[in-house]
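Work Package 3 (structural annotation) set out to generate three-dimensional models for the target panel prioritized at the project kickoff. During this period the team completed the workflow that converts sequence records into discrete structure tokens, so that structures can be stored uniformly alongside our sequence database. As a representative example, we reproduce one entry of 144 residues exactly as it appears in the project archive.
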Amino acid sequence: MHEEEALKILVEGEYGILATVDDENQPYGTPLSYVVIENNIYFHCFTEGSKLDNIKNNNKVCFSVVGKTKVLPDRFGTLYESVIVFGEANLVSDEKEKIMVFREFLKKYCSEFISKGEKYIDSVGPRAIAVKITIKSYTGKHRN
């Protein structure tokens, strides 16, 4: 798949799977919602948890998105499209960048509730953080 097609699938995807490893090299996959801003992937979460512990230990991550699929039972196959990203994850420390990320989430997932969402962002405050995955490389695959 061409890079432009893969990027389109990544941008338009509803959710992805973040793959990290813990301090014993045990893989850990987390499904999560995300946004793409300027060829970086962002997700948000609370300030504690396994994925954050893993990122602090080793910030190299893999992120996978599956686009459209259709099972073809008569052909014993599936039409599909997917993208795999390799990158480095880091906590967003800049407050303006964090708010920008949260607003992009509102646009993507809650576009009919922007005003209410802005109030929600204010109420969550320091309990939520944003994480930025700097994309190092990605590849897309599909079967039409």
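The chain has a mean pLDDT of 93.
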